[in-house]
Amino acid sequence: MGQPSRARVRCCGDPPLPSLDVQQRLLQQLPSTSASTGCIECEEALRLNQVERRRNVGLAIASSLAAASLYTYQRMNPLNPLVLLRQLEAQSPTLPSALASGRGTIVEFYAPWCVSCREMAPCMQRLEKRYGSQVNFVVIDGADPKNAQLVQSFGVDGVPHLAYISRERKLQTTLIGEVPEKLIESNLLGLL
Q: Residues in domain Thioredoxin (predicted)?
């Protein structure tokens, strides 16, 4: 199996152990050879204690480096849903070009302050990756004043607001609020 443990169980009647510094000072006061003191176990226990202390310091340093690396990675690669929404918006075609493509189109209106919009962002990204070659995904910031005319023409009175437009440029379905991915996908399949 394994080596027997060198630790011994302390009981409530044992005197408290001296700190590591006190143990080291006591060890320095001992004669240089353990044979003359007859306390090989004490020296071995102190040596093991020092090894364990070095190991613990090494683990603390390694843990700190790992935490710093993870923090840096997350800062460099944000998983912030608002950043994701902005990326989807920047990459999406304009509404006129999407409608002119002859494919079905999903128009998603969002607002930066909308919690549901941010929660749905990863779902919309997955669907766009899966169906982006068959259906247009247009993402519009409904809170941006430059999009006020689109907001009005689609009758957006709450976000998230998903408008499904057929190849024939007819509004098929509108979903408002946080909607399960399966429902979004099933309506999307009607545009194919």
A: 59-192
